[in-house]
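Let's study my pick:
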Amino acid sequence: MDDYSEESSSSNLSSYYLHLTLSILAIISFWCQSVVTEERLVPALNVLADHYSIPDDVAGATLMAAGASSPELLCTLVSIFVTHSSLGLGTIVGSE
């Protein structure tokens, strides 16, 4: 009976550390995404808006939506043309 309780507490402890590690990794990945967006995506969209003389409100609505959807579009294109699957085609059509 004692072996079972020690095994259970060890399993709970390892599960705790797994959840803690995954939570820390999620926080780090969200921070990295915010840095890349702030440092690279927003200035690039500002250059596009200035070059094509797009008003700020229109540029914010259209270019930011296109920039936010581009990773999902790339994943869908890879799934269609590389793996020959229609994995995410429905989500691209109706997103944003």
Q: What stands out?
A: Helices lie at 2-51, 56-81, 89-94. The radius of gyration is 22 Å. Residues 2-51 form the longest helix (50 residues).
